[in-house]
Amino acid sequence: MTASLAPQTLPVAPPRRGRRRRIALALAGMVAALAVSAWLARKPLLRTTADLWIVGDDPAPADAVAVFGGGLEVRPFAAADYYRRGLVGKILISNIGAKPSEQLGVLPSHVEQNRRVLLKLGVPASAIEPFGENLANTFEEASALRDWAARAGARRVIVPTEIFSARRLRWTLRRVLRDTAEVRVTALTPYDYDRNDWWKHESGIITFQNEVIKYLYYRVKY
Predict the structure, then answer these.
(1) Could you tell me if residue 120 is inside a domain?
(2) pLDDT tens by residue, 162-199
(3) Residue 139 located in a structural domain
(4) Which of 195, 164, 199 is nearest to 42 (CA)?
(5) pTM score
């Protein structure tokens, strides 16, 4: 009598669709975890990014402080402060090219706006002097400042600017004035944002990204 053979049951492989779903869920979880970690760590990361980018020199006694174009809400105030503290005896104002509204006399020129602020802050008119003529960009301003320093025999000049533009300005000035005078670029906090919350303000984000691009452009061109 022969024994009957029982049918053998082969192992059934799990459905491939279920395995793919588990892998997809695992990957989605990993991505979500990374996104949450990046979101939670964004503030320290963005602060560190700003700290690494921002450069600046401490103000020190100098022959003059130069106010470049722009920054009306910050730069002349710093210049007046350096004058009151006895660090400088002269404040230079960049004579940038006049805009159409300024040419018509509707608005005061850059030199006149800064002059009015300085006078309001107690700086005497005799200590204020424009430099250059129809200056169009930072490199032209740096070249005009070099020419003034050579004529005046200046050994050191302070140039205040905002925190994000300080790196480009200091590189440009040191390159242009390296054989003429020492330049100290002081990094100022803008009135509408600072290094600890710049990413919360549209002006901070735009200024930071623009300065990175402009810095690279200056390094390539000049």
Answers:
(1) yes
(2) 999 999 999 999 999 999 999 999 999 999 999 999 99
(3) yes
(4) 199
(5) 0.81
